[in-house]
Design a protein that fits this description.
With about 290 residues, this protein is an alpha/beta fold. The chain has two domains: about 170 residues, HUPs (Rossmann fold); about 90 residues, Pantoate-beta-alanine ligase, C-terminal domain (Pantoate--beta-alanine Ligase, Chain: A,domain 2, 2-Layer Sandwich), CATH 3.30.1300. A six-stranded parallel β-sheet has the order 1-4-3-2-5-6, sandwiched between helices. A three-stranded antiparallel β-sheet has the order 7-8-9. Helix 6 crosses helix 7 and helix 8 packs antiparallel against helix 9. The protein is globular and about 55 Å long. It starts with a strand and ends in an 8-residue tail after the last strand. The mean pLDDT is about 95. It binds adenosine monophosphate (AMP). The site of adenosine monophosphate has 17 residues, from helix 2 and strand 5.
């Protein structure tokens, strides 16, 4: 595996692969790898000739009071893990390579960014995501890019970006990888002390409770959400949001009909955690 720091070198490596008609898969990450990241790398490895993983803690998607300075970083460990999973290129640029002096362009995806994490973290968050993802697509020009359903809203933002700017890349969303007790894997789980780590299991348990109701035929959004709220309250968690929305448009729904995204965000101990389940109304299950 090569570790590359410059845009020029990654472009040259991708061009060489393309000359041999090799396909290119990209996995954008901020590092501190766990099995969620590795599942994306494995999927990219299975389906492409050249696998590029970007490792860049993107400063523009963090707010002033967020965790940019303490975000976990361990490039040597990450590089060893990526190498083990057959990654060809780890693209790990310095911030100045991505945002040189004079950088002046921001991409804003409207609509799907107005709610959930966009509302809580502010518009800068998804502006930062959309801008850096567009840049990575411009730099690597992958055939396919892999994202985790863990960040469900991010997947919708990236899909909108790709459609609206006619970017020639296919977006693959991969399932959420969880710890044995159900906690969604996240680089931020390292912030959890043992008590908070135990408390954090309530997020997925709350989504499970809501899903169980939906599976039993409940279609009323308020009833479904109340079941999830009860589990969180039991664990002493007041979520930043817990909402059921259309899985494509993120418009609010009152009745479960087709696919809906049940999404939660909460501060647990020293971490801000997010999780989600996609719910499907009982009458639609079994549809393709
Ligand atoms: P991050 O490094 O947190 O920006 O994540 C890089 C990619 O890995 C994003 O597309 C995430 O959605 C994805 N990812 C993070 N956690 C998980 C997880 N538990 N399961 C699946 N994908 C994940």
């Amino acid at each position: 595996m090569r570790i590359i720091r410059t845009i020029a070198e990654v472009r040259e490596a991708v061009r060489a692969a393309r000359r041999q008609d090799r396909t290119v898969g990209l996995v954008p990450t901020m590092g501190a790898f766990h099995d969620g990241h590795l599942s994306l790398m494995d999927e990219a490895r299975r389906n492409n000739d050249l696998v590029v993983v970007s490792l860049f803690v993107n400063p523009t998607q963090f707010g002033a009071n967020e965790d940019l300075s303490r975000y976990p970083r361990d490039e040597a460990r990450d590089a060893a893990m990526a190498d083990d999973h057959g990654v060809d290129i780890l693209f790990a640029p310095e911030p100045s390579e991505i945002y040189p002096d004079g950088f002046a362009t921001t991409i804003h995806v409207a609509g799907v960014t107005d709610v959930l994490d966009g509302a809580v973290r502010g518009a800068h968050h998804f502006d930062g995501v959309a801008t850096v993802v567009a840049k990575l697509f411009g730099i690597v020009a992958p055939d396919v890019a892999y994202f985790g359903q863990k960040d469900a809203q991010q997947v919708l933002v990236v899909r909108r970006l790709v459609r609206d700017l006619n970017l020639d890349v296919r977006i693959e969303a991969c399932p959420i990888v969880r710890e044995a007790d159900g906690l969604a894997m996240s680089s931020r789980n390292v912030y959890l002390d043992p008590a908070a780590r135990a408390q954090a299991t309530a997020l997925n348990r709350s989504l499970d409770a809501a899903q169980a109701l939906a599976d039993a035929g409940e279609r009323n959004a308020g009833t479904i959400i109340a079941a999830a709220h009860a589990v969180l309250a039991d664990a002493g968690i007041a979520p930043e949001y817990l909402e059921l929305r259309d899985a494509e448009t993120l418009q609010p729904i009152t009745l479960l009909d087709g696919d809906a995204l049940l999404a939660v965000a909460a501060r647990v101990g020293a971490a801000r955690l997010i999780d989600n389940h996609t719910l499907r109304s009982a009458d639609r299950r079994g549809d393709a």
